[in-house]
Amino acid sequence: MGIIEDVSVIMISSLAIGSIYALMALGLSMLWSTLNLINFAHGSLMMLGAYIFVYILMSTNNLLLALLAIPIMFLIGMATYKTVFEKTSRMEDFLLRNALITLVLGAMIEQLINIYFGGTYMKIPEFVSGYIFIGSLRIASQYIAITFISLGLLFLLYLIIFHTKYGLAIRAVGQDLQESLLCGLNIRNIYSVTVGIGFVLASIAGILLGSIYIFNPVSGRIPLLISYIIVIFGGVGSFMGTLVASYIIALLYVSSSYYIGGSWSLFIAYLMMLLILTIRPYGIFGGRR
Amino acid sequence: MVIRATIYIYGAIMVVSLILIPIIGLYINQTILTLAIISLIFGISALSWNLLLGYGGVWFFGQTGVFGLSAYTYGLMSRNYDPWISFILSIVISIIPITVISLLSIRLKSAYFALATFAFNLLVSAALIAIYPANVIFQIPRLYINIYSYKLKFDEYNSIPYYILLLTITIIFLYIQKKMLTSILGIRFIALKENEDRALSLGIDPLRARLPFIIVSVIFTSIAGSIYAQYLGSISQSIFGLDIFIVFLIILGLGGIGTFYGPLVATILWSFIDFWLSLFATQYRIIILSIATIVVLIYLRSGIGGLIDLIGTKLIGVETHSSRRKTSEEIHYRH
Fold this sequence. Notes:
The complex is a heterodimer.
Chain A (H helix, E strand, L loop, with lengths): L2 H33 L6 H19 L2 H4 L2 H20 L5 H24 L13 E4 L2 E4 H23 L1 H11 L1 H6 L4 H24 L10 H14 L4 H21 L2 H18 L10
Antiparallel strand pairs in A: 1-2
Helix pairs in contact in A: 1-6, 1-9, 1-10, 1-11, 2-5, 2-9, 4-9, 6-7, 7-9, 10-11, 10-12, 11-12
Chain B lengths: L1 H27 L1 H26 L7 H15 L5 H23 L4 H22 L4 E2 L6 E4 L2 E4 L6 H23 L1 H11 L1 H6 L4 H27 L2 E2 L5 H14 L6 H19 L4 H15 L3 H14 L6 H12 L1
Antiparallel strand pairs in B: 1-4, 2-3
Helix pairs in contact in B: 1-2, 1-6, 1-13, 2-6, 2-9, 2-10, 2-11, 3-4, 3-5, 3-9, 4-5, 4-9, 6-7, 6-9, 7-9, 7-14, 10-11, 10-12, 11-13
């Protein structure tokens, strides 16, 4: 293969994977900036969404019914907020406590998936099959479909956050809690919906990633790490920063695994994170938090 | 102080267990001794994590990386070198990379430092799997002592030498922790947690205040990791997974973050509950323990350690005021 084919393959797959990571990282970033929640369970939640999707799809063989996984994850998110994070929010060391709780929660979800679905590898069937030919180049239409689906979802998320009253409220709570309380915002309601949205974004990312790669209960760990690298790189709470960073990191990840080898790509992403942390700890677009 | 009120209870438990567990292990039931050794290995790791997380508010999440790196280094080095030399080398080697990463990222805010050190776990596992691709290291030799012409291997007498070694290390750790926390070093360390802006404005350097504690914590974790490899005799790549990290977390969460003896009590409790659950509910034991940990983290803020402190002070009737308030008063006084 020539250099042009190489580059275009890398570009196309990093566009698809970058969009998926953007969905995941935006969920993380939202939880971090709004609730001050460092969610280590995001990878497991991603897998939970994918497994619920696969389970409904296998038992009913209906794609539309399988999309019920998304509202289910939203409800799980709201329930988790009500039962766990609302209780800890009044403690003085709630940041650390929440982080530890999400770590334990992540392990618990992994084990639950392991018990009910088994630890074997699974794959979500492709939404669209076949290939598209551009010249001598063969592109799986799945990648293109995923890119368009996730770009559409990102646009929807942008509209929700920046062009609705609810999105305004979510951003306001993230910026200044006291002022939002004074304005009469229902903080608990906003928090629970934010957690729900975060969980939904994780599960959508899981479903999309699960239709490209095979997965098992623990395969959410590396995406979790990569999306945290993205969040730090782009700056916490910055929508555009996270979006740009996810494509940069995805390009780096895909090209390094294409040229050097899959086991080294994580190293490079990690070194990039350490570099960013030492030079500009608040990300390329983020403000000081 | 709380510590003085409850030290009698813990002291009594310690002395009784010191005498009782080896006797039970030698003559009645070996399982008790095995559980005691395993619980002390995890207990030392959890205690040294508690020193950073609980007392210093340093979000150090690289504990499994250090633990696994030390275990793996011992496993690989002891093939060619003497067990004692590889024991010491495994500790030295496993503290170098995490110290470098801490130096680079120690000035960061808590969550950023947590992510930098959390990613270290995965990095170590990727590097070691690249160096040594086989899944399991078998036949790891154990330590020995030459007493005149007699060579005492540590796995003789149902591994009682390991039990004594681990108990000694635990006591040394608790002593060092107490000395460090009550010195000016410890006051700076705690001040950074309690009020970071104020501490910084008083001229406390985060690097100089936190680095000694990180190094002490990492040294004891790597000792525990190395002994873990020796005691089990074989280790697999799964040592780097989230599972051991979750065990540390369960012990710390149940024991109480920032309590002096809490993790030690919780680790004994954990090892027995875990063993008991593994007899008839193998799959569910992580779930049950996780739920218990979450409940304790939410409703019982200072865990079992805090509960015992409370009972101890009620029983002995010493006036309590939390160690936290005392230290901030001392800071005010000394500066």
